[in-house]
């Protein structure tokens, strides 16, 4: 399929109701309002195509940009390509999921994450924290730089209050991911989570809630999933 054919199919799958819901969650035009579940058969037909994923992302259409990540081949992504994706992301579904998942499975996961978390641009900073969150969830502990992760954990309590809301949200998510996925640092993550308490964030017109990190980590431990790694960053 060509990019034009894929865009046409995504347009046909979209709905005004879904589009309006996504706009309330921070989506930015152009967007068709294609449900992710409706996108999956198309994803399956396309498989993984690196060049096509780059073309789709370049359309600037939110639905196509998200699909681009789903059919991407992260190991083939170059640093300039990852940088471009991060710079072009316009809202959380792209920056915190599409871009972050792709970067987390790339050859440059921690390099990109560490650079991005320092960005003044919200979408890039959120990509950084979300990339590292996904990375620790899929990477064996013996392949992680525990000192680096501990450094990032220590940074959060002194920086979170001055951070924009979406950055606060992904910082909280990073604490949860480390506490749930990296047993050697669970105690440290829980101590940071206790310092943070319930992170106060405006979720706009949505019914979304910010998870309490201490409670979330304890639930993962109680469920017997503590330290279990996911096979992929992608959902």
Task: Describe the protein.
- With 235 residues, the protein is mostly helical.
- The chain has a domain at 109-235.
- It is built from 13 helices and no strands.
- The chain has helices spanning 3-13, 16-24, 36-46, 50-58, 62-70, 79-88, 92-104, 109-116, 122-138, 146-159, 165-181, 186-196, 213-222.
- Helix 5 runs parallel beside helix 7 (92-104), helix 7 (92-104) crosses helix 9 (122-138) and helix 8 runs antiparallel to helix 9 (122-138).
- The longest helix has 17 residues, at 122-138.
- The two termini are 23 Å apart.
Rounded to an integer, what's the Rg over CA atoms?
A: 18 Å
C-alpha end-to-end distance: 23 Å
Work out the helix count: 13
Structural shape: globular
Secondary-structure-derived class: mainly alpha
The multimeric state of the shown protein is: single chain
């Amino acid at each position: 399929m060509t990019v034009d054919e894929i865009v046409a199919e995504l347009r046909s799958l979209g709905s005004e109701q879904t589009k309006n819901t996504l706009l309330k969650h921070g989506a930015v035009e152009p967007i068709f309002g294609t449900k992710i579940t409706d996108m999956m058969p198309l994803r399956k037909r396309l498989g993984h195509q690196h060049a096509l994923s780059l073309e789709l992302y370049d359309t600037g259409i939110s639905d196509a940009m998200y699909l681009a990540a789903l059919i991407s081949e992260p190991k083939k992504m170059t640093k300039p390509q990852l940088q471009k994706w991060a710079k072009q992301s316009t809202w959380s579904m792209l920056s915190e999921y599409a871009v972050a998942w792709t970067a987390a499975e790339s050859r440059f996961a921690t390099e990109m994450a560490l650079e991005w978390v320092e960005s003044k641009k919200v979408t890039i900073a959120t990509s950084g924290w979300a990339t590292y969150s996904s990375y620790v969830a899929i990477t064996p502990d013996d392949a992680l730089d525990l000192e680096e992760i501990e450094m990032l954990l220590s940074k959060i309590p002194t920086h979170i209050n001055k951070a924009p809301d979406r950055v606060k949200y992904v910082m909280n998510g990073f604490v949860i991911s480390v506490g749930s996925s990296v047993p050697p640092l669970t105690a440290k993550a829980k101590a940071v989570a206790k310092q943070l308490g319930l992170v106060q964030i405006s979720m706009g017109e949505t019914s979304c809630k910010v998870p309490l990190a201490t409670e979330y980590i304890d639930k993962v431990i109680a469920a017997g999933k503590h330290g279990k790694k996911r096979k992929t960053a992608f959902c």
